TrEMBL record:
Record SUPFAM superfamilies: Glyoxalase/Bleomycin resistance protein/Dihydroxybiphenyl dioxygenase
Lineage, top ranks: Bacteria, Bacillati, Bacillota, Bacilli, Bacillales
Presence of keyword Metal-binding: yes
Keyword Metal-binding: yes
Official protein name in the record: Glyoxalase
Domain VOC stretches: 12-130, 171-285
Amino acid sequence: MEKKFFQAPTIYVGEVNINVTDLGQSLEFYQHILGFKVLRQTDSKAVLTADGKTPLLTIEQPEDVLPKQARTTGLFHFAILLPSRSDLSAFLRHIVQTKFRYGLGASDHYVSEAIYLSDPDGNGIEVYRDRPSSEWNWSNGEVEMATVELDAQGLLAESTDEWKGMPNGTIMGHIHLHVSDLKTTEDFYVNGLGFDIITTYPGALFASTGGYHHHLGLNVWNGTGIPAPPENSVGLNWYTLIFPDEESRAKVVTQLKQKGMTVNEQQDRYAVKDPSGNLIHLNLS
């Protein structure tokens, strides 16, 4: 993991907040399968961390919660970035030993190696490690990414370490969202929030700042023109973008307002919905 992609002057994802149907069941999964620690907890909400101090994921059980809705905008997956390949090796060994299979998959994306799974409610999760950026291939301003078979045996051979939970240095690497339209989405994230489109797939855009392979994935694989889900359904509540300073955030707020977007301002808190209804908190580092 290269910290330069997750510190000033980049804009990156900090925390993700999702709904679940059963907080106790979800805590069992997020603590014992993924290895998060609980930072704070109430009867309906738990804030999860890797290092014991930085919130990475908050899970909530709203009243009258609805199951995950089909063919809506919202969360495709959030992606947990581990510090090293040996950490991912230990995690894969742990998944094999626990025989966890729900939504399980694995891919090599050239820039990274990734393991995919889902929580008990079907919220998508990626756990990955980055290859060094010196090994990424760029052409005409786009980074080469693909989805090919992961060398699972080679990854397992990387270490013999036991998985002891999310290591210090684990961060939220990126978030991948279902959106309703790629054209308006690109305009919002590029001309509003200031991201660069790094590469494209059929029906998907990948965006970042600072030359990362992607802080954001944005796809219409659920269909174009799809609605946002009900607020009390399983899935994404909001995610945060971390800005390096007040000046850069103020510039983005001005750009968003010029585009006719409603920016909710409460004291030092700013929030905006993208054109597909995905709620973003604009925070400072």
